[in-house]
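Reviewers of the previous submission asked for a worked example of the structure-prediction workflow described in the proposal, so we include one complete record here. The input consisted solely of the amino acid sequence. No template or homolog information was supplied to the procedure at any stage.
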Amino acid sequence: MRSSPSGADPLAPGPVGFTHRGLHGAGVPENSLAAFRAALRIGAGIECDLRLSADEEAMLFHDADLRRMCGSPDAVGSLTSAALASKRLAGGPERIPRLAELLALVGRRVPLLLELKTERGNAGRFCAAVARAIGGLPGPTAVMSFDPAVGVWLARHRPDIRRGLVLSGRDSAFGRWLKIMRARPQFLAVKLSQIGLPWVERERWTKPVYVWTVRTPDEAAWVALR
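From that input alone, the workflow returned the following structure tokens.
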């Protein structure tokens, strides 16, 4: 991911960039402590996904249910944090981590991008849980979401936590403008297919823009030239 020409970026992770869901692969599940430790070993920033448990604790997990990663039909939001923390990822020894575990592991060593996967109007409760975990010294940590309600909550209640808006390109021009106006993001995270489009270039002059997800050396080289 590359910063914008709009000025200094407090989350700039250096030449290695951010790892998507940690540095995962064979035997190392996405959004696991093993994936985060692997990212730390190469000095990369960490992007990861969060879901809210039934007892309102922020957990590191991408999907709305446990089918793909844990072989269970349960919805993440229907289980307590203790129940989720006991679930094995991809049948291996790694389990679903709490956000507090990631924060304790990383400290302030590398930047963190926390993507909140909101559902059923839980943005306020979700943001409050994340803010509690982060505490009063967020460091190089930012919170982002497709849901502009996350930005609204952070701007009002925790303006010290850097906030971002994730965009895929599916919105109409008006819908995209409305989300940006509502969320008041300090950075954008934009799908790779959108890089180079006029609206992205305009935004890059006012705020950092990250790109997701770069998977090949050719894609990385192309993005670096933008």
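The radius of gyration is 17 Å. We consider this example representative of the routine output the project will generate in years two and three.
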